[in-house]
């Protein structure tokens, strides 16, 4: 996943520097307080990668896959969970199987950037199940939405009757995903 790729690149530490630092009392690769950048060793990065692919793996399965003990894996996962680095576990829904096989990326330009306007639009996003993801953006567009709907007609209806009629929205631009790779 892109998140892990950037995480592993940004959190690499010099090997000699890591070896000179003492490990935490839990004896795992996790180091750093709330005000410092997190440092992950190779096993920590492997664990994060595996967990992003399949969070349902047991500690024993993870330990086998990354070459560590079960207890070590538990400690290495528990520390970033406690500090909020690892978020909640979720189950991904197969959108096609629930009748939502059309995946649309929609850019939105706002009429106004006032606090009231952005809060109103973000409330719309939080209240609608069609909005799978919503990002505030820099650049020409103000928001990027990921919307799942049943078909193109369903999207047109949702776009015209809900999104573009919102008083804060000036315009939008839609891009239909062909396949997920």
Structure description:
- Helices cover 40% and strands 17% of the residues.
- Helix 3 crosses helix 4 (59-66) and helix 4 (59-66) packs across helix 5 (70-82).
- Strand 2 and strand 3 (143-149) form a beta hairpin.
- The termini are close together.
- It has helices at residues 2-10, 15-20, 42-53, 59-66, 70-82, 115-127, 152-163, and strands at 102-110, 131-136, 143-149, 169-176.
- Strands 2-3-1-4 form a 4-stranded antiparallel sheet.
- The protein is of the alpha+beta class.
- The chain is elongated, with a radius of gyration of 21 Å.
Which characteristics define this entry?
single chain; about 180 residues; alpha+beta; four-stranded antiparallel β-sheet; 7 helices; 4 strands; about 40% helix; disordered N terminus
Q: What is the topological layout?
A:
Elements: H1 2-10, H2 15-20, H3 42-53, H4 59-66, H5 70-82, E1 102-110, H6 115-127, E2 131-136, E3 143-149, H7 152-163, E4 169-176
Antiparallel strand pairs: 1-3, 1-4, 2-3
